[in-house]
Amino acid sequence: MLATSGIRNIMKQGSQEFLLEHLVIEKSIEQSLVFHNGLCNLVTLEINRCWKLKTLKVLSELKQLRRLVLHDCPLLQLDHLPPFLSSLVVYGCHRMLFLDLLQLKRPSLFTELKIMDCKQLMNISGLENLTILETLAISQCPRLLQLGLLPIVPDCVVISGCPKLKVWCEMHSIEPRDEEME
Q: Which phi and psi (to 5°) does residue 164 adopt?
């Protein structure tokens, strides 16, 4: 569990107050991380190599969070999203079955979606609301069946290793790649 009392101590030293905007959590052994109001100014959150992590609690309370990066959290299921997110990068979250972008309060802010190596991912909903999406990269998600229709095709689109998205790619005039993304 991520407690904010320690963070408050870091944020206030003497008479100076610091606002934490970027947080990286690596190799946590926790199964659940809870985010409290001590992180209310957090803009970027990166969670890396947390192999036992299953849930992120109260993530939807991080109203300033714009960028969320999840890397090698194989047991994580992302049930709730921060409401004003503009960038989401997910790599190696093998138990994630779905991603619901309909949770975004301001989808017009969302510009980047990168999903890589999520072996169980089957559905991404809410793409139809992403009117200024600039980057869409989906790679090595072999079970991914459903994506919403895009209102516009982003400038940068890479679909690779997702054999069940062939028809979706054809509908959007996107040429899927056979090689893996970097």
A: -80, 0
Are 59 and 38 contacting, i.e. CB atoms less than 8 angstroms apart? no
Q: What is the Cα–Cα distance from 7 to 158, expressed in whole angstroms?
A: 38
Burial (CB < 10 A; 0-12, 13-18, 19+), residue 15, is: exposed
What is the SS3 string spanning 72-138? Answer: CCCCCCCCCCCCCCCEEEEECCCCCCEEEHHHCCCHHHCCEEEEECCCCCCEEECHHHCCCCCEEEE
Which pTM does this prediction carry?
0.86
**To the nearest 10°, the Cα dihedral for 76, 78, 82, 86?**
90
State residue 20's pLDDT score. Answer: 84
As given in the structure block, the two tokens for residue 5 are 């009392």
Alpha carbon 176 to its chain's center: 22
Alpha helices in the chain (DSSP H): 4-11, 166-171
Q: Within a 10 A sphere around the Cβ of 13, how many other Cβ atoms?
A: 9
- Residues pairing with 112 in the sheet: 87, 135
In three-state secondary structure terms, 90 is strand
Across residues 139-157, what is the average pLDDT? 92
For residue 176, what pLDDT is reported? Answer: 86
Q: Which helix (H) or strand (E) holds 68?
A: strand 67-71
